[in-house]
Model the fold of this input.
Amino acid sequence: MKRLMSFESLAQVGHLKNILEQSGIDCLIKNEQLSGGLGEIPFLDCLPELWIIRDQDFLRAESLLKATLNFHESEKSWRCIDCGENNESHFAVCWQCSSPDSLNT
Ligand SMILES: [Zn+2]
Done:
């Protein structure tokens, strides 16, 4: 069993678990119960974690996860640093002033 990654929100880890299970990859969530804030456990140690049960599924799970996260990433718009215009992610340059996307270049 291998740890795939940890997440800052249970909603996110649950969503990815569904995606992996739909692809036939068995996985489980650790630290699903967040601590009650007693201050005894450092916060980073109790983030929800997604674990892959069969080691041979790990690489496939990792690429699925990357594809999913990139997909969400690509839906974001970006803001032009020159004129402040919001641009759709598929524009490589600002449609308003033709300045390149500083984050993607
Ligand atoms: Zn611009």
About this structure: The radius of gyration is 18 Å. The chain has a mean pLDDT of 82. Residues 81 and 102 are 7 Å apart (CA to CA).
